[in-house]
Amino acid sequence: MPQNLYSNNAASRKDDLLSSNNSLLDSDPENDSEKRFLGYKIAIVDKLVESMYEFRELHSKLNHNLLKDCAELQSSSTIASLEEKELESLNSRLNKNIKILKESISTLKSRQLEFDNAYKDVIENKPDALEPESLFTGVNPLSEQLIVLDSEIHAYDDALYYLTKALDNKKIELSVYLSQVKTLTQNQFLKKALAIKIKKMLN
């Protein structure tokens, strides 16, 4: 009977401790040594349970953050791998372009040297060959005549332009202007007609 009474008192004391906000470790000690010892044991268990819950919650948060970080790292690793492949491809294309540019520069230098030598030879031995009439020649008499006609047609355009400018500046009379324009346009028309005929013959 005394044992049952002690058990009931202990259980009641435990319920009171669990429902209380303060631990028995923080309360005033009991006069009864057995009750005080039991109270300490219950308080220690309470602290352990509370610490375990806190640890489990912290552990859960850490696991969640760790999984999230791992996923982000995996995604970053995939992106980095793709970017690395793209950079390698760009580097390969760049190296090819550099090679082509070097070859082109080498070719240009070679052509420049050939041109300089040819120009020097012409200056020293055939200076007349640099005259415009000598630079632009046709492959046959008709093409040469077409080149001459084309230059004459453009010369008529220039003459008409300067005549109009002279009239605007009142340097010539209107009658003179009209007379000259009539003559120039007639001659230009004949030149153009002949040029068209030669082009048809060449084609």
UniProtKB/TrEMBL annotation:
GO molecular function terms attached to this record: ubiquitin binding
Name this polypeptide is given: Tumor susceptibility gene protein
Gene Ontology BP, a term: ubiquitin-dependent protein catabolic process via the multivesicular body sorting pathway
Compartment(s): Endosome
Record-linked Gene3D superfamilies: 6.10.140.820
Residue intervals of the SB domain: 140-203
Pfam families per UniProt: Vps23_core
Primary localization: other
Keyword line: Coiled coil, Endosome, Protein transport, Transport
Entry GO terms, CC: ESCRT I complex
Coiled coil location: 84-111
Record-linked InterPro entries: ESCRT-I_UEV_domain, ESCRT_assembly_dom, SB_dom
